[in-house]
Design brief:
318 residues; alpha/beta; Metallo-beta-lactamase, Chain A; seven-stranded mixed sheet; binds zinc ion
């Protein structure tokens, strides 16, 4: 299974400003010595040593993930603005000729999870086929509503690919050949569902958007079957703990709680994501280092859990 991260930002797309890029360049130049910039090779070596917030960006596109299974089944999880870039890539192959086929899993229909659809090129090409799965009976209406003429000039029916909307039974599983897909209800305003994809003994979990507050933590064993022994979990950690306690019922979690849940259920790798649009790259560096510090002081209980922070463009091979 191969997972590619096309959008990791929550709530609203967050492009870098010119001023932010200037600050990154200035910081890099301040840190460089003459030896660091004396050849192309030394420049590359120097860039590799810089903090991620200086040498790159965690990305501004809203949530979109691509999962290619070992058996060649393509899944797209959520359709934020990351979907535009994924669509441009897909049309270079079968989707450009009208021979493409993919499955879309939607967690819910808040804007940051559907706003890429009107700009998804493979939807415009006749012959492409998409099965769109969600636990919402009115999913088609919700997506159509985003593209009524007063909001967007092209309605969903004008996008000529075949789009079949399939309603999943809530908190159930289904199989596509040897791939098992589980959906699990998450606490979030208006509702949301997480997905677990299993193939050949490997499992990937996508939980966006989700708030694990004290009520959920009292019932945490009801999540055991969903999370248990997962290889990779991508988890909504939009808030720092300080913000979390001021935003109860806003529908998102802090990294500390994601770490507690991942270690309790023997997850191998946890990725923090659904980054707050107000968080700069420097702040996201801090989110990761604070989360690692929390793991450090609880190391005995946490064991071998690996922790990373999601970056746009990241690829994980399972
Ligand atoms: Zn969201
Ligand atoms: Zn949401």
């Amino acid at each position: 299974m191969k997972i590619k991260f096309w959008g990791v930002r929550g709530s609203i797309p967050t492009p870098l400003s010119g001023e932010t890029i200037r600050k990154k360049i200035k910081k890099a130049l301040t840190l460089a010595s003459p030896a660091d910039i004396c050849s192309e090779e030394s420049i590359d070596r120097f860039i590799d040593t810089l903090p991620y917030s200086v040498k790159g960006t965690y990305g501004g596109n809203t949530t979109t993930f691509e999962v290619m299974t070992d058996s060649g089944e393509l899944f797209i999880i959520d359709c934020g603005t990351g979907l535009k870039g994924l669509g441009m890539e897909l049309v270079k192959g079968d989707f450009g000729k009208g021979n493409g086929y993919a499955n879309i899993l939607l967690t819910h229909t808040h804007w940051d999870h559907i706003q890429g659809i009107p700009f998804f090129l493979p939807f415009f090409i006749k012959g492409n086929k998409f099965n769109i799965y969600s636990p919402y009976e009115d999913c088609r209406e919700r997506i159509e509503y985003q593209q009524v003429f007063t909001h967007f000039p092209v309605n969903l029916d004008y996008m000529l690919a075949t789009k079949e909307f399939i309603t999943l039974e809530k908190e159930s599983d289904f199989y596509l050949n040897n791939i098992r897909i589980v959906n699990k209800r998450m606490r979030h305003p208006g509702g949301a569902f997480g997905y677990r994809i299993e193939e050949n003994g490997k499992s990937f979990i996508y939980t966006s958007d989700c708030e694990f507050n004290i009520d959920e933590m009292f019932d945490i064993d009801t999540y055991k079957d969903f999370f248990y022994n997962a290889d990779v979990v991508v988890f909504d950690t939009q808030y720092t703990f300080d913000e979390f306690i001021n935003k109860i019922d806003w529908g998102h979690s802090p990294a500390t709680i994601a770490i507690d849940i991942a270690s309790k259920f023997n997850v191998k790798k946890l990725l923090l994501f659904h980054h707050d649009p107000d968080y700069s790259d420097e702040k996201l560096d801090d989110v990761l280092s604070n989360a690692k510090a929390y793991m450090g002081i609880n190391q005995k209980k946490i064991g071998s859990l690996q922790l990373e922070i999601a970056r746009e463009g990241m690829v994980i091979d399972l």
